[in-house]
Amino acid sequence: MVTLLVGTRKGLFTLTADAGRTSWEVAGPEFAGWQVNSVDHDPRTGTTYAAVTSEMYGPLIGRSDDLGRTWDQSSEGFTYGDGGDELRGAWAVKAALEPGVVYAGARPAGLFRSADGGKTWSELAALRTHPTSEHWSPGAAGLILHTIVPHPTDPAVLWAGISAAGVYRTADGGETWEPRNAGINAPWETAEPPVAGQCCHKFRLGGGSAARLFQQNHVGQFRSDDGGDTWQPIHEGLPSEFGFPVATHPRDADTAWFLPLVGAEHRFVPDGVPVVYRTRDGGGTYEPLTAGLPAGPAHLVILRDAMATDVLDPVGVYFGTSTGQVFASPDEGDTWHLAADFLPPVYAVHAVA
Amino acid sequence: MTVTVRLPKELRRLYGVPHPATVAAGTVRDVVAALDEAHPGVGHRLVDGGRLRQHIIVFVGDDQAALDDPVPPGAEVTVLTAVAGGSAGHQPTWPGGQGWAGTRHSSSGAPRPGDTVRWYGSVNPDPGSSVVRNRTSAR
């Protein structure tokens, strides 16, 4: 069975299908009325995590041991403390290498860690107080920490992505951080690429690799082969440098999927025709994938956390839209179908297989 | 020093808080702490950084209250939230700003004594029916 955890502006929905992944049953919402920006599931502990936000009541990290039927949302310690900034949003949650260790990203941008499966939290404050934070400026969603990528084998190594601040990496469990944005421009900062201030939208590890990263940035698509030390543009062959999500193959570090949008002015798919672009050579070339997707006009918007892959063979690829559709491909993007429609705006998709 | 507390429905549903809840408290801060003790996490929905969240407003009886204000025995404590009103782009503000809303509305449409009513701007259209009175300045 495959379960898609779909975070929306108005709650968390679950879509379930058998391994064929062609017919989906929709359930939910949990956290009805609350915005679910990020979801994750730790298959080792069976715990599901949701980064949930209310404009009125602030953010929380929900945890569930029954795939989202019941929740604990106590989120103790998910705060900047007395006298600190009010926490306004939860934008990322990610289970890490060591069972029970979970990270969460917040607005205003900061990183939290739990060692007890999300029951209690404490801030890794060295990131928020980093000397380069003077370069940080809020994007359209505010100054948010939206991407957390744990190293696949070293629990001390972690990447975090902030808009608009860029990619940061720690090699000591979060005590010290270094910006990792070399090779990526930030034209609003300076003519020369600064060390930080880049508008990273999303990045993910290539499958089976500890060093290859794919990034969708405000200014383009990029690849790193050295854990973020340097980045190379991989725009060639794509219709737009702008976009929000990127998805990667669970086992093949050369395969990734992008969903470019027309630049910052419009932020919908080019020409009103949704096309998923797949590379199997690390961004050297791309295949446009359209079979089963709307031929247009369909001015879809796909947000940063709304594209995901599962771990089956062939890999399932999924994306949700700001107009409430979820599209699914059971064959690595070759063919697509509509898995759900008429949901609230989709912010996050995570596949549990 | 028992007081009754009325929380917005969203919070009652998520944290399983009774309506009204009864807690022992001497200040608004005590109320939040007692609620959180009984329903872990709900306090953090109202208070962060040691302050009421930006869009949360608390009344003790008819009066808007700050965290350290006293809560007399038997008092009714009502928690409300801001709402956005007017044109797009406005952040919810209160009091005296874009307006704010209660969450305990009469099902018949007409307010009953004790109901919290919704209004916008600086004029309460039906001041006699509400447990709260419109205020145009912060205490």
Largest interface: A-B, 23 and 21 residues
Work out the radius of gyration of chain B.
15 Å
Mean pLDDT of chain B: 73
Main beta-sheet strand count, sense and barrel state of chain A = 4 strands, antiparallel
Number of DSSP helices of chain B? 3
Strand order of the largest sheet of chain A: 3-2-1-27
Number of strands of chain B: 8
Largest sheet of chain B: 6 strands, mixed
Through-space gap between termini of chain B: 24 Å
Describe the global form of chain B.
Answer: globular
> Unreliable runs of chain A, pLDDT <50, ≥5 residues?
none
Strand elements of chain A, count:
27
Radius of gyration computed on alpha carbons of chain A: 18 Å
Bin the helical content of chain B: 10-25%
Helix-strand topology string of chain B: EHEHHEEEEEE
Task: Describe what you observe in this structure.
- The mean pLDDT of chain A is 95.
- In chain A, a hairpin with a 7-residue loop joins strand 15 and strand 16 (213-217).
- The longest helix of chain A is centred in the middle third of the chain and has 4 residues, at 125-128.
- In chain A, 1% of the residues lie in helices and 40% in strands.
- Chain A has 353 residues and is an all-beta fold.
- Chain B is of the alpha+beta class.
- Chain B has 3 helices and 8 strands; from the N terminus they run E-H-E-H-H-E-E-E-E-E-E.
- Chain B has helices at 9-15, 28-38, 42-46; strands at 2-6, 21-24, 47-48, 51-52, 56-60, 63-65, 76-82, 100-101.
- The radius of gyration of chain B is 15 Å and the shape is globular.
- The model of chain B is unreliable at 86-139 (pLDDT under 50).
- The chains are: A mainly beta (353), B alpha+beta (139).
